[in-house]
Design a protein that fits this description.
The chain is an alpha/beta fold. The chain has helices spanning 51-63, 65-81, 99-107, 119-126, 164-174, 205-215; strands at residues 15-16, 20-22, 29-33, 36-37, 89-93, 111-116, 133-135, 147-153, 175-184, 216-224, 227-234. Helix content is 29%, strand content 25%. The chain binds zinc ion.
């Protein structure tokens, strides 16, 4: 399934061209790079990960209890809150190297889509799962509310604090039905080139929950190792 794509800058539905997509509103062009439509501006992912990071991450994800436990918790939450997963459209925002997407593809009939800021991760991901992938900026998503389920796993704490409200507003806009979000509440092992901890937001659940409640119905809250998970539903009426 291909999503209906809209201009991340002006929200107009995009037209497909030979090399990518064009916006009939603001005339911006969005290229397809190595088969992956790219909706980040120039320089959007200049501070990309060291490619060796993904090999290391893949090893950790295959073996570390935290990653193994987390993907099981995510699948369990999906099964409990969505009566029939088959054919449901799910978007993972910040899919990294595709570890969770691959796990879900092997165990469900979900129609999966992945997106991430970093092209290196997406290219790695493309070798793991055969699903639509997009390079995006989470503050400017190029999607309408065309996904039943939105997953965002240990990504929100990486967002620049000043942009978090925009990201959450966008999450509200694109979530047609259910959102499953995990948030790490402590420090990251990784330090950014500018010296800041990679978890730009390190806050407890009491800080996060009002932000989710403003925008969604809360269906479930669980503490998980080093953080928490919420299942949310689109506000009715
Ligand atoms: Zn536009």
């Amino acid at each position: 399934m291909q999503a209906v794509l809209s201009c991340p800058q002006c929200q107009r539905v995009l037209a497909q061209t030979d090399g990518g997509f064009s916006c009939p509103g603001c005339q911006r062009l969005y290229p397809i790079i190595d088969g992956i439509p790219s909706f980040v501006g120039e320089g959007g992912s200049e501070d990309a990960f060291d490619p060796g990071f993904f090999a290391l991450l893949e090893h950790a994800e295959a073996h570390h209890f935290w990653f193994i436990g987390r993907r099981e918790i995510i699948l369990d939450a999906l099964k409990r809150h969505v009566p029939d997963l088959s054919g449901k459209r799910m978007l993972e925002i910040g899919c990294g190297n595709g570890n969770i997407l691959r796990y879900l593809q092997n165990r469900t009939e979900l129609q999966l889509t992945g997106c991430d800021l970093f092209m290196e991760g997406l290219q790695f991901c493309r070798n793991q799962v055969d699903i639509p992938l997009y390079q995006i900026d989470a503050t400017l998503l190029p999607f309408h509310n065309c996904f039943d389920i939105i997953g965002i796993f240990d990504v929100l704490e990486h967002i620049e604090p000043a942009l978090l409200d925009n990201v959450l507003d966008d999450l509200q806009r694109v979530t047609a039905d259910v959102g499953v979000f995990t948030v790490h509440t402590g420090r990251a092992a990784k330090v950014l080139p500018d010296g800041r901890n990679a978890h730009l937001i390190q806050q407890p659940p009491a800080w996060w929950l009002p932000k989710f409640l403003e925008r969604f119905e809360l269906a479930n809250f669980n503490r998980v190792v080093m953080g928490f998970m919420v299942v949310v539903e689109r506000k009715r009426g």
